[in-house]
C-alpha cells in the first residue's frame, strides 16, 4: 500500500493554475458536484465481539476523491477504510462510516445532538442546503447511529474544512488585510469551538468510555502558489490546530478520552503529493489518505502496521491473529475462491486437526466446534450437521508432499472464524 511518491516537476506547474484551482475548488469540499457520487455510510465486518470504530465527519471521513464524480458505483478507500485494516491486524473489527459530504461543524453538532436525543432530522435541519444526496438517510437513521455510537470503542472525527474554506480562499488570494483576516479567523475559530465543544459533550454523554480522536485541518495549497499566500494559509492552519488542541485538553481535564490527530503538519511541503490540487480539487489523494490514516493509527495504537512484501508467485498474504503465516504451502486462488493448506490455518488459531483415511476427511476441532471436511465433497459437517458448499476441498501436490487445501470461506464458516479480505492490501485477515 505504501509507495514512493513520484517527484513532480514544480517548474512546469503554473502558479495561476494552482490559484485558479484553489479559488474555484477550495469550496468544493462542500460543493454539490462532489457530493453526487461519494460512497459512505457503510458498515464493515459486523460482529458482537468486534472492536468497533465509528467515524463521523465530512468528505474526508467519507473518503471522497474527484474521480468518484464520474464513476457509476464509486467505492472509497480513505483513511477510515485503512483504520478498519489496522484494527483487523489486532483482532475482529467493525467500522461504521458516517462521513457526510459538505458537512460543517454546525451540521455535525445538529446531527450528534439529534442522535443523542433520539430525534430524526430533515436534510435542512441537519444542515441547510447540504449537498450530500444521502442527507435524508442520515437524518432518518439517528436511532441506528445512536446504537452504534453507544457501542463504539473508538470514535474518529474529521470536521472543519467546510468552515475554514472561505477564510483560506481569501488568504490564498491575498485579498484581505492582515487585521481583517485575523478577525475572520478569530470568528471562525469561536464558532468552531462552540460547535465542536457541543459535539464532544454529546458524544461523551452518549459513550463516556469511547476513545475520541479528532483531526486538525491540513491546508492544501503549495508554497509554489506564492510565499505570502502560503504563509497566510499556514497561519490559519496553525490557529486551527491550536484550537483543536485546546478543546482536547479541556475535555481531557474533565476526564473525557479525547485526542488530536495532528494531520496538518504532515501535509506541510507535501501539498502537491498528498492532494488533488493539480486537478483543481483539494481532497487527499491515496497518498494523502494513507498519511491521515498513519497519523490516526499512531495516535490510537502507537504504530501503523503493514504486511510484508510478497514474492510475485504468492497471490495474497494471510494474517491470523495479527501474525503473518509463513509457509511453503502457498494459498491458491481458483474460480475466485481462496484455497489454503488446512494445517497452516488450524495451527495458527490453535485448533487440532486429524485425518480420517476411511472417509478421506480432515477433522478439525476448535473451541467446542467439530468440523469434518471430506475431500471432493460438496457437503461438510459442522457439529454433526450437513452444510453445503460449492467449492469442495482438494488434495494439492507440492513437491513430494500432498496437502489438503480447503476454501478459506468454508473453513471460516465451519470454525466460526472472522475472515476479512482487503483487496487493496491483498491480505486476508483471520481472527477467532
Task: Give the gist of this structure.
This protein has 432 residues and is an alpha/beta fold.
Structure overview:
GO terms for molecular function: phosphatidylcholine lysophospholipase activity. Pfam families: Cu_amine_oxidN1, Lipase_GDSL_2. Keywords: Signal. Residues 1-35 form the signal peptide. It is elongated, with a radius of gyration of 25 Å. It has helices spanning 15-25, 32-35, 59-62, 79-88, 105-117, 123-126, 135-140, 142-150, 161-173, 178-206, 227-253, 264-267, 271-274, 286-300, 342-348, 408-415, and strands at 43-44, 51-57, 93-99, 154-158, 211-215, 258-261, 317-320, 323-324, 332-334, 337-341, 352-356, 361-366, 369-374, 379-382, 385-388, 394-398, 401-407, 418-422, 427-431. Mean pLDDT is 87; it is low at 1-40. The chain has 432 residues and is an alpha/beta fold. The strands form four sheets. It has a six-stranded mixed β-sheet, with helices on both faces. It has a five-stranded antiparallel β-sheet with strand order 11-12-13-14-15, with helices on one face. Helix 5 packs across helix 8 and helix 10 (178-206) runs parallel beside helix 11. Helix content is 39%, strand content 21%. The chain contains 16 helices and 19 strands. The two termini are 25 Å apart.
